[in-house]
Structure formats: C-alpha cells, structure tokens
Amino acid sequence: MKTLVTGGAGFIGSHLAEALLKEGHKVTVCDNYSNGRPQNLGHLKGYPNLDVHQVDVATDDLDPYFKGIDWVFHLAALADIVPSIERPLDYHSSNVDGTVRVLEASRKFGVKRFLYAASSSCYGIPEVYPTPETAPLRPMYPYALTKAVGEQYALHWGQVYGLSIVCLRLFNVYGPRSRTSGTYGAVFGVFIAQKIHGKPFTVVGDGRQTRDFTFVTDAARAFIAAAQSSLRNEIFNVGSGSPTSVNRIVELLNGSSTHIPKRPGEPDRTHADISKIKKMLGWKPQVAIEEGVKILLENIDHWREAPVWTPEAIARATQAWFDNLGVK
To answer: Same structural domain for residues 120 and 146?
Structure first.
C-alpha cells in the first residue's frame, strides 16, 4: 500500500513508519519537527520506499502528499499537558484544525483507510476500570480536549463523507525514541534521564498510582491491524490491559526515589479494557513491562542529552497546571 504517516518522525510515528516499511509498504512521512526529529528516521534511510517531507498539517498545502495514498495514519499533534494549559489556541490549531485539514485532504484524494491516533486522556478520571470505549469522555485539560474533538471530527467525516475511519485510543505508550526535550512529561523519559545522571526518581504522590503502559511496537502493530481490517467508524482502546504502579517502575529501573506533590486532574489509575480490539482485530499486546524496560535500558544512550528534572524544576514547569486545575 501507499501510506502516509503524519507525525512520522515522532516517537510513535517513527516506529509505525518502520513497521510499515518492513511489511513492504511505501511510506510518506509528513512532520513539522515540533515534536519529531529527523534522527528518529535516520536508521531507515536505506529503504527506497521512504519519502520524508517537512510539512505542517495545520498550515501547509497538503495536496502534493495525498495524491495516490491508500492509507493515512494521522499522528501529528502537539502533546503534553502543561503547554496545552498555557497555549490552548496553539493546541486547537494543531490538533483540531490540523486534523480537519488532513481529513479533507484524505476525502479529496479518495483515501481508502484513515487511522486516527486518539488518546486515553479523553477519559479523564474514569468511573469504571478497566475502562471500555463506551465510558464517558471527561477531558481534564486542553490537550485531552483537542484530541477528543479531533476524534469526533474523524468519526463525523466517516459518517457524512464515507471515509473509512478507525480511531485508536492509546494508553501510556513508552519505548525507544520517546521524546527527550520539551516540557516535563512522561514518566519513563524523566526517570531514565535521572538514572543516567545518578539522581533520584521524582515520584508523584506515593507512587502507588498505576498506569496501563503500552510498548510502542505494540501500538504500531495495532495501527497496522486496524488498517488491514475492513472495519469502519470504530474506536479501540490500545493498552496492555495490565496496569503497573510507578513504584514498580522504580524497582525495574533500580534507583532511589524522592516524592513530589500529586497533580490535579490526574487519575490514580489507567486501565484499558482491550477486549474489543482483541475480539474484532485479533490484536493483543506482546511486550510485557519487564521486557519493555529491559529494551529501554538497552537503548539508554538516547536519553544522554535529555533534561534532568529536579523537584524544584518540576515545580516551576508544572506551576500552570496547579494554578489552573487546582481546587479553587
């Protein structure tokens, strides 16, 4: 197939591009490098079927890249909680307007399959665990809201214009090539940089909160399984289905810890109900947390230039979070 991956130089996008190339597909990557890095695709330069372009899906002309495309994987988006609180209009432009423009380009050129990278953050603080796709959407901050709105646009374009849409709500994806720069964010990137420099891991709260960590190659496999199916206008959770506590991550990374305040609007638990994707797509996770952490540590050099977060630096970086989402 002729495939297009928006955000294909990013963390998840680069793994998806690699998986598609290994299956023999032609891959066009569009990325504005706001989150992605050219280096994430450097090891794929030997593939003649890879075509990479610096493109902003929210502002640039998309027509040249969508002609003849069979499958579109839309992963381009601004990420992270704090900057979305500080710059909500930027997030709306990238994650909502950008999604609509990608949908319109897909419709214009008759794309056969459209896969949208949705986010489990749309559930907010769920009432049901494991959380099914039918759970109410309760986004707690602008990033989560923009991803949920983008998902609604995708499904609406499927309903009105007949695009073949599948949305994948990703749970806590981790693995090699995850972002190392930008605003304080995902736990693994923070912890590994701290480990390299011999600093204690900054554990939020008591560390007993759990997350449904999903290894990045499992996420890439889910996208391809959805593209290969004939399903239309469906939503699937993509997770391990087996939550892990932050304290367990500290054990697996073998380091000391220090504790920082719990943050408003964050769930104590994320746990994906993955029964639907197992049944309808035949997908299931393959990489257990112990194996995933081992792979991360084997690729630890990726984080050597990453910022090393201290409790004081985290407090400064997340001040807007507490100011805007804290109890008034």
So the answer is: yes
